[in-house]
Design a protein that fits this description.
A hairpin with a 2-residue loop joins strand 1 (7-11) and strand 2 (14-17). The chain has a single domain (40-162, 249-427), classed as Alkaline Phosphatase, subunit A (3-Layer(aba) Sandwich), CATH 3.40.720. It has twelve helices and twelve strands. It has helices at residues 27-33, 60-63, 119-127, 163-171, 177-185, 195-202, 207-234, 256-272, 301-305, 311-337, 398-408, 424-427, and strands at 7-11, 14-17, 35-36, 48-54, 88-92, 136-138, 278-283, 291-292, 295-296, 350-355, 371-375, 383-385. The longest helix has 28 residues, at 207-234. It is of the alpha/beta class. The chain is 32% helix and 12% strand. The protein has a seven-stranded mixed beta sheet with strand order 6-7-4-10-11-5-12, sandwiched between helices. Strands 2-1-3 form a three-stranded antiparallel beta sheet, covered by helices on one side. Helix 7 packs antiparallel against helix 8 and helix 8 runs parallel beside helix 10.
Length: 428
């Protein structure tokens, strides 16, 4: 079956996108039972791109394995990915050859030190018309000075920082946002509003699709519960103090790790429902003081990243990094379990690029970037240490990896800013 037609359940004040169902391969049945968006039919496998960047990066000696090739020992920070090692490739040695510093973190997806079109927006220009949203830009709270997605004019795109806002954007009815607000606030489910349509649909689909639909609704409801939990925290009055609010979203910044997990759930649902095929997630790095495994860390996230080689601060910085990788690992596991319209794991048709434009926050160094590429149907399982060019001694470019990603998504481009090679030999 080949269908990229999106289907929805509609109720009073709710619009619930559905995962691809084999039983709805017929346009006739789909149009009878459901509202449908415009079809975008292609014989090629559906390709999607997710880019995830952590603003403060990682302690790179704890990130990079000492060994290369397929037999490398998983590093301390990457341990949560051990069971998924066959699903990603790790790269070391890649750079943008751009000036160092926080401000140049924004070059993460642009391939240069000044604003220019980012990888995600190039891809969105190719596949964005095939889904409800050409691309989604996501963060947690406020990204602060962080920027990651840029138009071809070099204009940065704003990110959605609240899970509840993203949820409503993905699953809310434009005609009745107020009702969905009421639904969430009253601990009801948006699914309640389409229950009659759902019951009618289940009479027309196969047992396998019915099971898939139940699993999907369960995922939606689980995310709703997490969003509702966060909303309750926002309603708790805060103490009155004589203090100027810092320049970040005041929505529980110390809970941004928890926010990450919810955003990943929503991102997986967005891909599963084909609401979008391009997502960029900027993981912010500010002064959050995290509590991990019941223990409050001794300093804020930003302070830990600027550890001054203090072993205690490095250890705590690694705790944050490992927790972030844990959230990421759970995300790609979700994609490996969810299926697309051809009954393929979403991870197989989704390229997931993860890492940071900061090589070493302690020294504000933007070289030797910690990055990996998961999914996408590439040849995975190894740590690739990319050597300097033997003739020029130039560092290899992250843009070379981007060229391979674009090529695999049908975007014929010989150069990405300064990059002109590719990583085909490592991945294809």
């Amino acid at each position: 079956m080949n269908s990229n037609r999106r289907t929805f359940l509609r109720g009073a004040g709710a619009l619930i996108a559905l995962p691809a169902l084999e039983s709805l391969g017929s346009a006739g049945l789909a149009s009878q039972a459901l509202g449908t968006g415009p079809a975008a039919v292609s014989n090629a496998p559906v390709k999607r791109l997710v880019t995830i960047g952590t603003y403060l990066g990682f302690h790179t000696p704890s990130w990079f394995p000492k060994e290369t090739g397929a037999g490398y020992k998983m590093s301390k920070v990457l341990e949560p990915l051990e069971d998924m090692r066959s699903e990603f490739s790790l790269f070391s040695g890649l750079d943008h050859r751009a000036p160092n510093g926080h401000k140049n973190w924004s070059n993460f997806l642009t391939g240069k030190g000044t604003p220019g079109v980012s990888l995600d927006q190039i891809v969105a220009g190719k596949v964005g018309n095939q889904s409800r949203f050409a691309s989604l830009q996501v963060t947690c709270g406020s990204a602060g000075e962080g920027r990651m997605s840029f138009t071809k004019e070099g204009i940065s795109l704003p990110s959605i920082g609240r899970p509840s806002v993203l949820f409503k954007k993905l699953f809310g009815s434009e005609s009745d946002k107020a009702r969905l607000d009421y639904v969430l606030a009253s601990n009801r489910s948006a699914l309640d509003l389409v229950i009659d349509e759902a019951r009618s649909l289940k009479k027309q689909i196969s047992a396998r699709d019915s099971e898939k639909l139940d699993e999907y609704f369960s995922s939606v409801r689980d995310v709703e519960k997490k969003v509702q939990k966060q909303r309750r925290w926002l309603e708790v009055p805060t103490p009155k103090v004589d203090f100027d609010l810092p320049d970040f979203d005041p929505v529980a910044p110390d809970l941004s790790l928890e926010c990450e997990a919810i955003m990943y759930d929503l991102m997986a649902l967005a891909l599963e429902t084909d609401s979008t095929r391009v997502i960029s997630f900027l993981v912010p790095g500010q002064g959050q003081v995290f509590t991990i495994e019941g223990e409050k860390l001794s300093a804020g996230y930003h302070g830990l990243s600027h550890h001054g080689n203090d072993p205690d601060k490095i250890a705590e910085f690694n705790q944050v990094g490992k927790k972030q990788v844990t959230n990421f690992a759970r995300f790609i596991r979700l994609l490996s379990k969810k299926k697309d319209s051809e009954d393929r794991p979403l991870l197989d048709t989704t390229a997931v690029f993860y890492g940071s434009g900061m090589g070493d926050a302690n020294t504000h160094n933007n070289s030797r970037l910690p990055v990996l590429l998961a999914g996408g149907g590439y040849r995975h399982g190894a740590h690739h240490a990319i050597a300097r060019d033997k003739e020029t001694n130039a560092t290899p470019l992250l843009g070379d990896l981007f060229l391979t990603i674009m090529e695999s998504m049908g975007i014929g481009q010989e150069r990405f800013v300064k990059a002109s090679r590719n990583m085909n030999d490592y991945l294809l």
